[in-house]
Task: structure prediction
Amino acid sequence: MNKTKTLVLISSLVLAVSLSAAQTSTPAKSGTHRPLSPQAKAQIDKNAGTTPKMTLPTTEEVDAYMKRSFGYDPGVTWQIYSIKEAEIPGLVEIIVSVNKGEPYHLFYSASTQTALVGQKLPFGPNPYATARTKLQGAFGPSRGPANAPIEIIEFSDLECPYCKQAQPIIEKLQGDFPQVRFVFQQFPLPATMHPWAHKAAQYADCAAQTNKDNFWKFVDSVFDAQGGIALATADDKLKELATAAGYDGQAIATCAASPATEARVQKSMALGQSLDVSQTPTIFINGRTVLGLAGIPYDNLKNLVQFEIDHAGK
Result:
C-alpha cells in the first residue's frame, strides 16, 4: 500500500468510527480480513469480559466495523490485537493492524461515537515510573551488570525483519554502554503475521535456559536465516541452528515442545501486553518506549541512552 492510500485509510478510520455499544451483533461474512487465531480471540474476549467499568465493544463488533469501512477493497486486511478500557477515563482502547503494518491505537468514545487515532504518551515529572515498575518482572536473558543504573529491555520477534535490523544496533549500544543492563524478552507476533515466530521463541527460550552465552549466537543465526525458514521446515531449521550455536539440537527441540517452555513464552508476552507492546521490536530505555530503532540516527540514540542514564530512576 502506498503512502497516499495509507493516509486515506487512516483518515477513514478517524472519520468513520461508529461502533455499537451493544454486545450481540453478528459480523457479516467477508473474505477481506485476516481471521484471529483462536488464542488471540480468546484473549481479547477474556479482556472484554472482565467486568469493566464501561461496556466494551466485542471482537465481532470491531471486526464488523472494519468490514463496513474497508470491505469494498479486497486489498485491505486487518488484525485486531486488543480491546480494553483506556487509561484515559471514558475511552476504549482498540489496537488494530491494517495490511500487516504497524498497529494503530484507536481511542473510542461510546458517548460521542467518535475515535482518535494516536499513541498515548507518558508525561509528567517522572513519566516512566509505571513502566519501570512493570519491567521489574523482566526475566529474559541479559547482558550487563545486575546493578546497572538503567536497563534497556527489548521485546522481540525472531521472524520480524525490523528486529533483525535492530539487533546490530543494540549490540553496538552494548559496546558503547557496558554499564547498562540489556534484557531480551520474547514477543512473537500472531501466526497470521509471522507463522513460525512462536516456535522460534520456544527454541530461543530453551537456548537461554540451557546456556545464556550461546543464546546470543543462536538469536543472531536465526535472524540471519530468516529468509530460509518456513513453518513446515521450522523445527528442522531451528534444530540445525541450535546445533551450530553449540547446543544439543534435539535436546533443545524437546525442551521447546514442553509446557514449561510455553508457559515462559506466554509470561513474556503477558509482560509485554501489560506495557501495551503491540509491535516489534519495542525497546524500553529506563522505562521509556522507543519504536523504530533502525530509523533513529545512532548519535541521537546514544544521546537518548546517556540522557536516561543521567535521569536514572526518574
The domain at 129-310 is CATH 3.40.30.10 (Glutaredoxin). Confidence is low (pLDDT under 50) at residues 1-8, 10-35. The first strand starts at residue 78 and ends at 85. The chain is about 45% helix and 15% strand.
